[in-house]
Amino acid sequence: MVLLQYLVDFNFRMMWCSKFFFLFFISGLTFGLHLRLLHGLRLVIIFRIFTFPVTNTYLKSRMSLYFGMVQTLASSEINIHES
């Protein structure tokens, strides 16, 4: 039962990135990884893969933004459970 619950929680959702589709007429791909944390809380990590060429600087800034959001969510979860 627990294994089935984790299999359901680790679902990948595929969707079109409409903002960049209209700008570049090329589709982007976005999927989220849902991780179950303590007491049923979930951490959602969003990965975005763009099919159009991007510069290193742009890619680094986007990745640092996502990792910053993930780090903030994770630290807030820890603070909730410590109090």
Automatic annotation (TrEMBL):
Keyword set includes Transmembrane: yes
Residue stretches spanning the membrane: 20-38
Keywords linked to the UniProt accession: Membrane, Transmembrane, Transmembrane helix
Entry protein name: cDNA clone:J023007B08, full insert sequence
Organism: Oryza sativa subsp. japonica (Rice)
